[in-house]
Amino acid sequence: MTATTALQSAAMSPSNSLASEPRWYLIPVRVLLVTFLLTLLVFAVSLLLGILGLVIAARLRGFHPNMTIAYRHIALPFAATAAAVVLIAASVIEIRHYRQTKALAEIERIST
Fold first, then answer.
1. 50-to-28, 43, 59, 68, 90 alpha-carbon distances in Å
2. Is residue 47 a contact partner of residue 71, using CB atoms and an 8 Å limit?
């Protein structure tokens, strides 16, 4: 058998390796990781915008800005809201992905 024929037969044959079964215990890990990272990102951006807004408002009105307002009344509520939304959305997406992967692995297992 020549090298070209061997390559063609290897390319045409079905793969011998089956897709691995999805692991349900990784879902909470991924959901919590994504929630944590996106919450931090939202907190940082809202804190930056809150500080900029306070500084601009203080300059226009001529008083010294109280930066704790940016933490307590702007960044923290935005981050808490974002955490709740991201937690729900990431959970739905991960569960949907797990079910789809599980169904496809079962179809592949049956078809071979």
1. 32, 10, 14, 10, 27
2. yes
3-state helix, strand, coil in the chain (%, to 5): 80, 0, 20
Q: Is the pLDDT of residue 32 over 60?
A: yes
- Please give the pLDDT value at position 16: 55
Nearest Cα to Cα of residue 75 among 91, 59, 57, 54: 54
The confidence score (pLDDT) of residue 92 equals: 97
Residues 6+ apart with CB under 8 A from 65: 54, 55, 57, 58
The residue behind tokens 């939202």 is 42
Model confidence, pTM: 0.75
- 8 A C-beta contact, residue 98 and residue 24: yes
